[in-house]
Amino acid sequence: MVASVHAAVKEEPVTYTDGETTMKGFVVYDDATQAKRPGIVMVHEWWGITPHIHSEARKFAEQGYVAFIADMYGDAKTADNPKDAGALSGSVMKNPKAMEQRFNAAREQLAKQATVNPQRIGAVGYCFGGAVVLNMARTGADLAAVAGFHASLGLNTPAPAPGTVKAKILILNGADDPFVKREQYDALKKDFDAAKADYRIVEYPGAVHAFTNPEATELGKKFNLPLRYDAKADQESKAEAAKLFAANLKK
């Protein structure tokens, strides 16, 4: 009990590189224990690294993981409007090699942390970040489990060959999210079925894009976009992700 009184979730900035580009991520962990624990690479929304992502990382740390907030844009760039956010996220999604390199650079940083068991690493992504982690699973990345919250389904990596997808995959999306088209679900299912991947899609009725982000409703009104926080879908999807990671990272 004494240890828990002094225990705290620590968040430390980590500067690393992808080629010539300086990346600025964060490692987040609970210092109550010195034991090595599973790691989760976290990939941000199209806005960049926001308070929402920091908050989510702290929750994972409290659940016994080391979270690494990846910087997918370089220099921790963020956007405060959809035009800039679209340009930043588009620059990554239009260049699948760069996307892979940036994700892998973050994964390597996470695996190097003294608090991490490098054999037990998963990934989670939100919106744009959801597309990134799903694409990384498609490439056969060394990940035990991957969860995408209100994941964009922009698939920019080749269809995986049978048996190459290592990660257990969970897609947690709003059933009424206009940003994700039915044909995108169909294409994703076709590819994952052919690859014999272990995946599950959960859709939350009434939920739209960005439903886990408490800032989403205000942003939706400000920019006239279908973004809205949904407390019920947020809670239920987090419970699903917690089960996925516990079963595949902590076993």
TrEMBL record:
Keyword Glycosyltransferase on entry: no
Domain of life: Bacteria
Keyword set includes rRNA-binding: no
A Pfam family this chain is assigned to: DLH
Molecular function GO terms recorded: hydrolase activity
Keywords per UniProt: Hydrolase
Limits of the Dienelactone hydrolase domain: 33-247
Protein's name according to its UniProt entry: Dienelactone hydrolase family protein
Organism annotation: Bradyrhizobium pachyrhizi
Lineage, opening ranks: Bacteria, Pseudomonadati, Pseudomonadota, Alphaproteobacteria, Hyphomicrobiales
